[in-house]
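Subject: design request, 267 residues
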C-alpha cells in the first residue's frame, strides 16, 4: 500500500474536523481549536505550514458526551478513547477508518488511522498549593499511562537509560493499562469543571503551562482555519501567550519541523 503524503493527510484531518464541528453544533457541545491548531488559525489562517495535525479541546462534560455519541455512531470516523484496552493516551483521537496509521517507535493501537486529537479540559482546585499538588498527581499518572507505548528497548550505549526502559517495559507487561486509565479519569473528574475557577487541558504537550484560569476558555467565537470557520476561545490571546509567549513571531528555520513521526496508508 502506498504511503499517504502530507498534503493528503492534512485534507483527511480537515474533513474529520468538519465532521466533529457538525456533531458538536448538532448536540450543543462546547469546543475550541487549541495548541498549534489555534496558533495556525490565528497566525496562518490554517495549518502551520510545517505542521501536520489538528487538535481541539473540550470541557470534560462535553468531552464525555462526545465520546458517548461517537461510540454509538456508525460511519467512516471512529473514536479511540481511554475506554479501549490497548490505548495509552488519556485523551481521545477521532480516526478515519479508511486509513491505517502507525506511530514510529510506539506499540500499535487497534484501529488507529489518520486522526485529530481531542483533549478534555479538567476542573482544578482554587487553592494554588492544592492545585499544584493535584496537577502533579495527574502528570505522574499520565506518564505511567504513556509508558505503555514503550517498545522493548534495544541495547544502547547509555546502559543506565536502557536498563530503566527495559525494567519499565517488563513492569508494564504485568500491569493493567485499563486500571491506570480508570485511576486517571477518576482523579481528573475530582473537581467539577463548571464549578472550577482554574482548569487544565489534560494530555497536552506543554505540561503545567496548560493549566490556566477558566476565563481563558469560557467563551467562544469563530476563527478561519483553511476554508472554513471553527470554534475558538475568544480569549485566544491570553491562551496562546501562556503557551508560546510571542506567538505571532515565526520560530527559526531550524525549528520549523513537525514533531509527529508516523506512517499512514489507506486500508
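Subject: RE: design request

Done. Sequence follows.
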Amino acid at each position: 500500500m502506498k504511503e499517504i503524503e502530507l498534503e493528503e493527510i492534512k485534507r483527511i484531518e480537515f474533513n474529520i474536523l468538519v465532521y466533529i464541528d457538525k456533531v458538536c453544533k448538532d448536540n450543543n457541545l462546547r469546543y475550541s481549536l487549541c495548541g498549534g491548531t489555534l496558533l495556525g488559525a490565528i497566525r496562518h489562517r490554517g495549518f502551520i505550514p510545517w505542521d501536520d495535525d489538528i487538535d481541539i479541546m473540550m470541557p470534560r462534560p462535553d468531552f464525555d458526551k462526545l465520546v458517548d455519541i461517537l461510540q454509538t455512531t456508525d460511519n467512516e470516523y471512529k473514536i479511540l478513547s481511554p475506554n479501549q484496552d490497548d490505548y495509552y493516551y488519556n485523551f481521545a483521537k477521532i480516526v478515519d477508518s479508511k486509513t491505517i496509521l502507525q506511530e514510529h517507535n510506539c506499540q500499535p493501537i487497534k484501529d488507529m488511522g489518520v486522526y485529530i486529537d481531542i483533549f478534555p479540559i479538567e476542573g482544578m482546585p482554587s487553592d494554588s498549593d492544592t492545585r499544584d499538588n493535584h496537577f502533579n498527581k495527574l502528570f505522574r499518572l499520565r506518564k505511567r499511562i504513556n509508558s505503555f507505548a514503550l517498545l522493548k528497548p534495544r541495547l544502547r550505549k547509555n546502559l543506565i537509560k536502557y536498563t530503566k526502559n527495559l525494567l519499565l517495559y517488563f513492569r508494564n507487561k504485568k500491569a493493567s493499562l485499563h486500571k491506570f486509565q480508570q485511576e486517571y479519569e477518576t482523579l481528573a473528574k475530582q473537581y467539577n469543571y463548571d464549578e472550577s475557577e482554574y482548569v487544565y487541558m489534560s494530555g497536552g504537550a506543554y505540561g503545567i503551562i496548560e493549566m490556566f484560569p477558566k476565563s481563558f476558555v469560557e467563551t467562544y467565537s469563530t476563527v478561519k482555519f483553511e476554508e472554513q470557520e471553527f470554534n475558538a476561545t475568544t480569549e485566544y490571546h491570553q491562551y496562546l501567550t501562556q503557551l508560546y509567549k510571542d506567538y505571532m513571531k515565526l520560530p527559526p528555520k531550524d525549528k520549523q519541523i513537525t514533531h509527529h513521526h508516523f506512517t499512514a496508508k489507506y486500508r
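Residues 6-26 form the longest helix (21 residues).
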